[in-house]
Design brief:
single chain, about 325 residues, alpha/beta, Arc Repressor Mutant, subunit A, D-Maltodextrin-Binding Protein, domain 2, 3 domains, five-stranded mixed beta sheet, three-stranded antiparallel beta sheet, 14 helices, about 15% strand
Length: about 325
């Protein structure tokens, strides 16, 4: 649980100790809880006052105010010593946790690194296939206490989850816009048309009309790259006669190698399959546009950590090779 979430949860528990007779706000201060805590630790009001460098009457006033604010009797006043009631002991346990949170909050200023927290990271398949491992290595080296949860999905889905607050940072093609999102440019990825050598024959430059004589294997409209290519085909007035759509880049790759159609693929990443004779490049006139990739995070939320993650992404970004360590 994050620090602020814990503090809110404890405040809610504190307010539940008071009967809900009205709608007035319950104001409980850390000084009141501190007084209760040290009475519990040292056994008397007098010792607590000495520990806090104040007077016994000041400590008594804090406890009286705390009882008034919570509507709870904290001490059995029929006893000579400071004997807590059952409700007082419950509040004491919460006071210990609240004071521990205060100590953690104060320690942040003395830390050189970002405090331990969860990073919810979203990437598309291409990043997962290429430089995601080295990026996670860099994140762990820079922030050893960060817990990373990675989600691999289509660009539109990731962008929606970012704007809904379900992801912290995403790496996607630059195909989605939102006034609440900051995006940092990473790279431009060159895509080319590819097909099985048995299907497309000897390499030669073809027109868009000739290209569309084949079955076109495409990603759907929730893919950033799919949107870029769909817009490009539309701008070239291409008439796609046969089309097969899949959300999975790996599935499209497998079907292309099997000769079921032609598709667009990142050149540098999949050039080794061309060298192995499993794929052939299909030069087109005009060529496909490069696909810009960005790292994005919410601008309307506290984002110092997200900005540092984005800079690390820019330093680690490399779409040229698969499975980078």
């Amino acid at each position: 649980m994050l620090l602020w979430e814990a503090a809110v949860a404890y405040r809610c528990e504190l307010t539940q100790l008071r009967p809900r007779a009205g709608t007035e706000a319950v104001i409980i201060t850390l000084k009141q809880l501190e007084g209760l805590y040290w009475i519990g630790q040292l056994g008397t009001f007098e010792r607590a006052a000495a520990r806090l460098n104040t007077t016994q009457s000041a400590i008594s006033k804090r406890i009286q105010e705390l009882e008034l604010d919570t509507g709870v009797t904290l001490f059995d006043r029929s006893q000579r010593n400071a004997v807590m009631t059952e409700k007082g002991e419950q509040l004491l346990a919460l006071a210990e946790e609240m004071l521990a949170l205060r100590q953690r909050a104060a320690s942040i200023a003395r830390q050189d690194d970002v405090p331990a927290r969860l990073l919810r990271l979203g990437v598309t398949e291409l990043s997962a296939l290429t430089w995601l491992p080295r990026f996670i290595f860099a994140l762990r080296a820079a922030h050893p206490n960060v817990v990373i949860e990675t989600e691999v999905d289509l660009g539109r889905n990731l962008h929606d989850r970012l704007t809904e607050g379900q992801l912290d940072v995403i790496i996607v093609p630059d195909a989605f816009a939102s006034p609440h999102v900051t995006s940092l440019h990473l790279a431009r990825v060159r895509n080319v048309w590819m097909g099985s050598p048995k299907l497309v024959g000897a390499p030669r430059r073809v027109s868009i009309e000739e290209l569309t004589e084949h079955t076109i294997l495409v990603q759907g409209n929730r893919s950033g790259t799919g949107l870029w290519v769909a817009n490009w085909l539309q701008s070239e007035a291409a008439v796609v006669r046969r089309q097969f759509s899949s959300d999975s880049l790996i599935a499209l790759l497998g079907m292309t190698v099997a000769g079921l159609g032609v598709t667009y693929l990142p050149l540098l990443c999949f050039e080794p399959l061309v060298a192995e004779g499993k794929l052939a490049i299909i030069p087109t006139e005009p060529e496909l546009p490069d696909i810009p990739y960005v790292v994005s995070y919410r601008k309307d939320l506290p984002n110092a950590f997200a900005a540092r993650v984005a800079e690390l992404a820019r330093e680690s970004c490399d779409f040229s090779r698969q499975l980078q360590s």
